[in-house]
Structures are given as C-alpha cells and as structure tokens.
Amino acid sequence: MGKGRLEAFSDGVIAIIITIMVLELKVPHETSLPALWLIYPVFISYVLSFIYTGIYWNNHHHLLHAVQKINGPVLWANLHLLFWLSLIPFATGWMGENHFAEVPVALYGVVLMMAGIAYYILSSTLIKLHGADSALAKAVGNDFKGKISVVGYALAIPLSFVSRWIGLGLYVAVAIMWLIPDRRIEKVLGS
Questions:
Q1: Which ranges form a coiled coil (predicted)?
Q2: Mean pLDDT over each residue of the chain, to the nearest integer
Q3: How many whole angstroms separate alpha carbon 150 and alpha carbon 49?
Q4: Residue 16: which of 64, 78, 87 has the closest Cα?
Q5: Secondary structure of 114-175 in the HEC alphabet?
C-alpha cells in the first residue's frame, strides 16, 4: 500500500501535539517582567519539547521519503511512535508546572526514551519491509545517533533523582546532537 495517508496522518498528529503544547502556555495576568519570570519553567519546557517534536517530525519525514511502500506492521509501528509523541504535551506540562521537579523530569525522560525506541522499531520495520540492501537500510546504517539517544535518556531518568539539572542537561544534549543535521538519508537518496 502507498505511504501518502500514513504521512498525512502523522503530520496531522504531530501538528496537533504542537498545538496542544502551545495552548498550555498560559499568559500571566500581570504586565510586569517578574510575572513572566514566574512562568519560565513552562516556557523552557515548551521550547525543549517543541524542538524534540520538530526533530521527530523532520526525521519521520526523511524516513518516509526513503520508502516506497508500507504494510500493516509499519502502520502499527507508526502508531506506537505517535502514541509516545502524544504524551510529550502531558510530560512537558507536568515538568514545567512543577518547576522541573525530579519525578516529572524523570517521566519526561521515560516518554523521550520510549519515543526513541518506537522510532527505532518503526525504522527497523521499514527496513525489514524494503530489505537489508535497500536505500533506507544503507542510509540508516547502525543508527548510532538513535542508539546513543536512548542510552542518554536511560541515563537521565535515574540521574534526574540525583539532580534534576543533570537529567535536563542530558535531554538538552541529546536534542543538540539531533539539531546537527543528519544527512544520511539525503546522501544515499541523492547518489
């Protein structure tokens, strides 16, 4: 089956996720700068989650661009990824509203880790469908960035209980790693 509906559905869900996150930003009732300062954790949480959602949207787009077809297992793997991404607004809101308390920061990491695992499952399912010698398989390779991301989240979760700032720092570090453009798929498809 074709991939068009899967792409459109996924784009719509991701757009809704971003919309839900921005709607959680509540405007201060005062007009002073200190009033803005009171909501900085909510805003920082939003920015980090917006970046993560954008990273997933971008990589999902590239992943689907490299394939010609999908099947039932791909549909379920994609829904699995969208499920974890749909929890980002909840985890973001809880973390921001509670000023980066340890448990919400750890839960945020659980959601990110599960989204990373779900993305790996989706890419593996697509590679299985298209074959080990496909352009997608060559582009993904050993997926070092994907694996190191999950390890980073797995470390950040327990470290969040030692220091929430260590956990947050690891989440930011992983996001920065993904902001450096990953041109594997573009390179393989361009050649």
A1: none
A2: 91
A3: 16
A4: 87
A5: HHHHHHHHHHHHHHHHHCCCCHHHHHHCCCHHHHHHHHHHHHHHHHHHHCHHHHHHHHHHHH
Element housing 36 (H / E): helix 33-37
DSSP 3-state assignment of 57? helix
**Which structure tokens are listed for 18?**
């971003």
Give the residue numbers spanning the domain of 65: 4-190
Amino acid 106 reads A
Residue found under tokens 């699995």: 80
Task: Using a cut of 0.70, tell me whether the model's pTM lies above it.
Answer: yes
Number of domains in the chain: 1
Among 161, 1, 91, 43, residue whose Cα is nearest residue 9: 1
Backbone φ, ψ for residue 31 (5° rounding): -105, 10
Residue that is written with structure tokens 């394939």 in the block: 67
CB 188 within 8 A of CB 139: yes
State the CB neighbour count (10 A cutoff) for residue 100. 17
